[in-house]
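Service request form, structural biology core

Requester: graduate student, group of Dr. S.
Request type: structure prediction, single chain
Budget code: on file
Notes: please return the result as structure tokens.

Sequence provided:
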Amino acid sequence: MALNKDQKAEVLKKVSESMKDAKAVVFADYQGISVNDLDNLRSKLREAGVRFQIVKKTLIRLAAKENGFEEIPNEVLEGPVGAAFSMEDEIAAAKILATFAKKNKNVKLRGSLFEGRVLSVAETKELANLPGKEELLGKLVYLLKSPISGFHGVLYNTMGGFVRVLNAVKEKQEQAA
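Core staff response, request fulfilled:
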């Protein structure tokens, strides 16, 4: 269904606002994906605070220009393209789309907009392979806890050894008496 000029202006406004508010925008080719698979993908994205929207490429280009992005290369917006707007976690959209693309060969990453730059497909895949926020926080906690645990172990063993020596001296004195 063709959109009239007012409808296109409204869609452009929404896409531009979403692009402005998003921490990252990931583009994916969805041609050949079933409706059920697309619904599953959208629900996974929604759970992570990501909005997936299918928009005309010209409107995506106009919204990108309004938000200060340079010209988006043709290979990024090749074929039917959906845009995933990550509102909370910068890499959530790239991670979910990359994982979904492994299971469904019809979904392909095309590129992304991240930190004021247009990323290629390879850069977007690298972004998807980065560890998530929770994983990084877990590693940080482990790194902070590790020296303390080691110090505790050394002190505990030293005190335990001291107690064993005192106990051995006590037993020896009891035997001598």
